[in-house]
Amino acid sequence: MNLTTDTIASHNDDRVARHRNLLAPWTDSIEQTESIIEKLMAFQIAIPSWALGTGGTRFGRFPGGGEPRSLEEKISDVGLLHALNRSSGAISLHIPWDIPQDAQAVRQLADSYGLAFDAVNSNTFQDQPDQLESYKFGSLQHVDRAVRQQAIDHNIEVIRHGVELGSKSLTVWLSDGSSFPGQLNFRKAFERTLGGLQDIYAALPDDWKLFVEYKAFEPNFYSTTVGDWGSSYLYASKLGPKAYTLVDLGHHLPNANIEQIVAILLMEGKLGGFHFNDSKYGDDDLTAGSIKPYQLFLIFNELVGGMDARGMSHATDLGWMIDASHNVKDPLEDLLQSVEAIQLAYAQALLVDRDALEAARDNNDVVQAQEILQDAFRTDVRPLVAEARRRAGGALQPLALYRSLHIRDQLIRERGAKSVATGL
Ligand code: AOS
Ligand code: ZN
Ligand code: ZN
């Protein structure tokens, strides 16, 4: 499925007059406006390969049709998103769901869509048909050395695939933990997991990063061996300078102050990246910004402040990835919504008057500090995000264009009504 520049241009032509009107007020502060647009254009968000099919819950799965049947079709789907919004210029793969048969060809295909490979993800939370040992009681934490070794070898194989594709990071998410009190010796589980991560870390190329993703609970319901940012930080610190913590927004206990976690990890140089999503109850993996957009903004507020303080590049120094998937929407439409929500939060955070905020804090002017943040959050930055897309060659309204072209119908004709993507 290829989207031509002509199609996008004619979509934009029909809308550009209205767009210019919406943009007009922004020309009063032209310097700030231009700087935000440039930053938005540079900001790319990686799409996870497993979000391209309709996700499942443990109660059932309802494929929407036209789902990608192969790695090549997944790349083509992300290429389509990127053509529409010019902000989804990377894909994050999952092994073994996405094993590339011919890495060179896969790389070329991604390249033809302007896509890079973001972090590769390992999988030691499921048993694969050809696998000798079972992960029923964990992987890197397992009491049996053979199971641990199998998990280590798998991660090293994932790195190898990533190297062939030009990826620069490995995300390790472990489902390891226990479901009942007494089941696990916490200290031994930690030590064994650390040992395994050390072996994986040793296989990491010099210019790679290892992301240690934490999660409070699920699938284990009593303890998780990498259960919170404190444990992840501890593993990452013990591993060394190439290891970082990865924050998945859905992986906290209710009401956790994620923006504060982000601020501290960033300050310590140990924040690696994100899995963006949203949730109301647990690891719901809902569309970014769909439930708590203010929280997303507050996180970006810490990111912009903290990254600027450390002289980091917003575009390249952290891993920006989506981790969302569910049952009821067209996955491509959902991803367009997630990307836009992330861009809006980022643009609003760029609006914050940081000097005024610091001054208010120094004066203990609580009201003014709150006003400054809310003023940015309540600003409609959609015209800026649309302008960034337009300048980069994308569509003013990606979702509207996707719908008007009946892309899902075309994909169903091409791939069938019952195609099911590999993944969760
Ligand atoms: C699991 O809850 C984690 O969020 C993982 O990052 C991710 O969902 C998984 O690796 C994809 O299967
Ligand atoms: Zn995740
Ligand atoms: Zn998750």
Give a description of the structure.
The chain is an alpha/beta fold and 424 residues long. It has a single domain (5-415), classed as Alpha-Beta Barrel (TIM Barrel). Helix content is 47%, strand content 9%. It is built from 15 helices and 11 strands. It has helices spanning 5-23, 30-42, 71-85, 103-112, 145-165, 186-202, 229-239, 258-267, 293-309, 331-351, 354-362, 366-377, 382-391, 398-404, 407-415, and strands at 46-48, 90-92, 116-117, 120-121, 169-173, 177-178, 209-213, 223-224, 243-248, 271-276, 319-322. It has a 6-stranded parallel β-sheet. Helix 2 packs across helix 13. Residues 50, 94, 121, 173, 213, 215, 248, 275, 283, 323, 424 line the site of D-allose.
